[in-house]
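Q: Convert this sequence to structure tokens.
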Amino acid sequence: MRSIPHDLAAFLVEAKRRTYAGLDDDATVTTPLLTGSKQLEHRAPPYTYRDIYFGMGFFVGQETVSRDDRVIWSMSYSGGAGADITDRNSFLAIYKFLRLALLGVRAEEPFRGPRLFEQADMVYRNEVDGSLERFHGIETISRHEGARLYELHYSGGLLR
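A:
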């Protein structure tokens, strides 16, 4: 079994804060590898982070971390706003709140956001099991009164 590089968690936190969480689609590369995708990247040698996803209301994606041009870690995810949410302004409000929550990513669990984040009338929850080596989780955004607005499932780990 390969050991987890000591600086991988810190790199993931930095990469996530400098891509979608911090910059939204402004972090998108001009020519993505896959036509029709959004592709976000962050480099801090020897590491390169890449997040490629498709969709908006419902989306599917994959994050990878390469070390010296070899992919060593990956996370797949899928989810999005509830099917009953169709208004663009509602999408934008939900994803703006999501990005705020994701800025709270921590090296102890550098997968998505913190376990709990609340602001105004929305609540973000992140339930995760595992470590950087192998993990899975679910994140949700709900109104304080309980109406679910968004849900995402994710899993991944260290490649061997």
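Residues 8-158 form one domain.
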